[in-house]
Amino acid sequence: MTVETQVNRVQYVGNGVAREFPVPFPVPRAEHLRLFLWANNRQTEMTEGFTVFGAGSAAVTAALDNALPMGVKLTILRRMPFVQPTDLMNSGPFHLEVIEGSDDNLAMQIQQLAEEVGRAIVAPESLEAGEVTYEKLAALLHDSEAALAAALAAAELAQEMAGRAEEAFGQATRTVDQWKALSTAAYDVPHKKMPSAIYHPESNMILFGVPRGRNGRDGRRGKMGPPGPMGPIHPGPVVGLIDCGGAMHFSETAFDCGQADAWT
Description:
Blueprint: E1 9-13, E2 20-23, E3 33-39, E4 42-46, E5 50-53, E6 60-64, E7 73-78, H1 96-118, H2 134-185, E8 187-189, E9 196-200, E10 205-211, E11 240-244, E12 247-251, H3 260-263
Parallel strand pairs: 8-10
Antiparallel strand pairs: 1-7, 2-6, 3-4, 3-7, 5-6, 9-10, 11-12
């Protein structure tokens, strides 16, 4: 067996139905597993009412006789005895499994100590063992509580400032919208009149009268367009010289030679 994980504890929260709980770390023997219940801010160790299956294998399970109640926390912890049971005889057999099992036992003992120290209040490295007193630990705890209170106050202040920033952003957005409304509501004032402003209390808006500027100069005349299409051809009056017995007459209409004297 090898110890490939630093985990030596696992926790579950009851749902009123589950009874079997996997153990994700090696357990050499069933008696090396301890179970604790946490309910109503109080811990109770289970000394009966459960069974450990698969000890010494890769699949270990802790099975309770009854379902874990809703909301109750179950802590499964490996606890190794601080002993070294391996006895190697001089000139005796040298089995690798025995040596590996002894190393595994030492590794699990070290993990057990590390887990316990991780839950302990540890004094600063600057203090020696004889200098660690209750008063100093109480002062350290007080400083920690003060730091926590300061952190919570800073978080609360940050949240308040965030609320103010959001409120300011909303106000700025409303102001921009109002100015946009004012710009679109500006009315025209004839040239040479003074600017004016009208306040509307019902809308809390000010309408600004902006004088018109002078008319600009006429622009350049555009280029002449292309000629239009030719109109239809209509027959005009008869125009020509009429020969009336050697006398020529000019006529623009129908002409009768008998009327020649009248034209001359």
